Amino acid sequence: MESITQKLKALDIRVDDYEPSFTQNELDVYFDSIQNGWWNVFCDDIHFYGAEDGLHRQVLRETPQDPRHKSAFRK
Description:
Layout: H1 4-10, H2 24-35, H3 38-44, H4 53-61
Helix pairs in contact: 3-4
């Protein structure tokens, strides 16, 4: 199977082929921001079209408590 990098190269688009990662400092800043309420501020800035805007935003706001996503919000 041809990788996306190979497909892009065939189109003369150069990309770096590497595994992206965050430094420990970047992760510390991220988790500190989450603890200081950044997620709620972020959710307040998201708006969904239609009458269920508030419902969808509340579900998004509860994402950190969802067992499927907890690890992205806690050290």
